[in-house]
Amino acid sequence: MDTMRGKMEEELKKLDEKIADAEENLGESEVREAHLAKSLFYIRIGDKEKALEQLKVTETKTVAVGQKMDLVFHTLQLGFSYMDFNLISKSIEKAKSLFEEGGDWERNNRLKVYEGLFCMSTRNFEKAANLFLDSVSTFTSYEILPYDTFIFYTVVTSIVSLDRVSLKQKVVDAPEILAVIGKIPYLSELLNSLYECQYKLFFSAFAGLTEHIKMDQYLQPHFRYYMREVRTVVYSQFLESYKSVTVEAMAEAFGVTVEFIDLELSCLIAAGKLHCKIDKVAGVLETNQPDAKNALYQATIKQGDLLLNRIQNLSRAIEV
């Protein structure tokens, strides 16, 4: 530890000398580069507070919008290293405002990956999937994650976010995804078995992929939640085809026991995730798929009644 601290102090001394020399003898761009080098050194050794302070100093020496966005990307990398969501959120908003001032599309595409990663880390899988899919053909954010991992995140978020038609168009048939998906164990089997309704194969691939998800830095905190969301998607897809189906037939389709399906579905139905009911005596599942138009009509009626009540209360107050 003493040897390492000595090397760090020696390196910092060199960086300070470089900054002093640039301020005395060189131009503004050289001064900025010297301050940036010191910022990157603090990031490399994991000194979060000093790195943020030095990045702010570097920003005061920076004029170009693109270079300011690069500093925000360094801040975001630091935020993801410490999973500081407050810092990440503020940095993303700052980068968006800088882009409005005149940022380039390459940096904006990089920002989509960072924002998608933030959304995935905060359980906003739908927005994360859309951002990732927008960046599949323009991915250049290798400093935050490799392309294989990016495709993994794109597929796992899309599975719980997109409908079957969109999944086919944007993920299953996407050439960029097809070129990489085979490198990730079980991922291709999971995606294709879901689309092709091969539920036994899906559960087998799903079991194999759980270890990958459990070991992932960003998905691990949401492991149980994500597992439940995936099972909800696949059960819903199966039940959409039937008005009623026996529990035994469903268990056979998924390659599991009747007791397992009964326990799974009862929990998901109680949580409002599945629209069906279990006839335990007959051993039958009866689906009651929600009518979107009827739900919208009921919501409109309810909001209308609420508005009328407020108008009546306001008229009484005015009369008084």
From TrEMBL:
Cross-referenced Pfam families: PCI, RPN7, RPN7_PSMD6_C
Positions in coiled-coil regions: 5-32
Gene Ontology biological-process entries: proteasome-mediated ubiquitin-dependent protein catabolic process
UniProt keyword annotation of NAD present: no
Domain PCI: 124-292
Domain of life, source organism: Eukaryota
GO cellular component, one term: proteasome complex
SMART domains: PINT (SM00088)
Matching InterPro entries: PCI_dom, Rpn7/CSN1, Rpn7_N, RPN7_PSMD6_C, TPR-like_helical_dom_sf, WH_DNA-bd_sf
Keyword annotations from UniProtKB, A to Z: Coiled coil, Proteasome
Keyword Coiled coil: yes
Sequence similarity: Belongs to the proteasome subunit S10 family.
Protein task: Acts as a regulatory subunit of the 26S proteasome which is involved in the ATP-dependent degradation of ubiquitinated proteins.
Designated name of the protein: 26S proteasome regulatory subunit RPN7
Organism of this sequence: Linum tenue
Organism taxonomic ancestry: Eukaryota, Viridiplantae, Streptophyta, Embryophyta, Tracheophyta
